[in-house]
Design brief:
about 270 residues; alpha/beta; 5-stranded mixed sheet; two-stranded antiparallel sheet; globular
């Protein structure tokens, strides 16, 4: 959204001083407890410098749109022509995650060379890059401990929280919907858990849509999905950790064992 240069400058300055402030030797790749501390500290700093995760470039009264399985440019255009009705995560301060200067500063702080190097790719997006340039999403956690979300999921969860605080959140799905997406693993569970804690009816918290279509006049329309029979999975504490919209949309249950989730099927 707009100009995030101040936020980027503050985060980059913090990143550049982190090793010195924590007596971490230069030219070493962060690992173990040191890596965990770095991630925790960085996430705290992100929350400190981004004062409002709901502020966006579309409008004060706009609704947050989360999406999976759709092209970024399509959703961006949908929001931009919505006459102030919808905004997406990249139209908030969370877009700093994709700033190349910020990303390279994260690489340098971790002690690697490129954003596709193993530790950085895991910390930023939970991905593993192969020698041929292809990638796969491992999971939504920055380390094997599972104590910290990757930055993509962490920042997205903060925007999702702020979006729900503004009102109903819209979740658009497309043919490319995958069960390991940020939307299904983090964003939607965040919205539903916050709604449950606030006593908000889940149907009032999120509207699910499919078949996003651009009309002849340049506007968009989508079909609202009946989610009354959607499969919701909970952890042992009763928190939502996965909602199987894959089954709702396609009729085929998500192949949940393809990624690392221990799901409670009693929900």
């Amino acid at each position: 959204m707009g100009d995030n240069s101040t936020i980027i400058d503050l985060l980059n300055a913090w990143l550049q001083s982190w090793r010195g402030n924590n007596n971490v030797p230069p030219k070493t790749v962060l690992s173990g407890e040191t890596l965990s501390k770095f991630i925790a500290d960085l996430q705290n700093e992100i929350v400190n410098v981004i004062e409002d995760f709901g502020k966006n470039s579309i409008g004060e009264n706009a609704k947050l749109v989360l999406y999976s399985g759709l092209e970024y440019n399509t959703v961006q255009d949908f929001c931009e022509v919505s006459n102030g009705e919808y905004y997406m995560i990249s139209q908030t301060a969370a877009d700093v995650l994709w700033n190349p200067i910020f990303r390279q500063t994260v690489v340098d702080a971790i002690g690697e060379q490129k954003v596709t190097d193993s530790t950085t790719a895991q910390v930023l997006e939970g991905k593993k890059y192969n020698a041929d340039g292809s990638w796969e999403r491992i999971n939504q956690y920055a380390t094997e401990s599972g104590n910290y979300l990757v930055l993509d999921d962490f920042i997205s969860s903060k925007v999702a929280e702020a979006g729900l605080a503004k009102g109903n959140v819209v979740y658009l799905v497309g043919e490319g919907l995958k069960p390991d997406s940020v939307g299904l693993l983090t964003e939607v569970p965040t919205v539903l858990n916050d709604a449950n804690n606030a006593g908000i009816n889940l149907s009032d918290a999120v509207t699910v849509g499919k078949n996003l279509t651009k009309n002849a006049d340049g506007t968009y329309s989508f079909e609202i999905v009946d989610c009354s029979d959607v499969s919701v999975y909970l952890d042992q504490s009763g928190r939502v950790i996965f909602v199987d919209f894959v089954e709702t949309i396609s009729g085929n249950p998500a192949e949940i064992m393809d990624f690392e989730l221990e799901l409670d099927y009693s929900a």
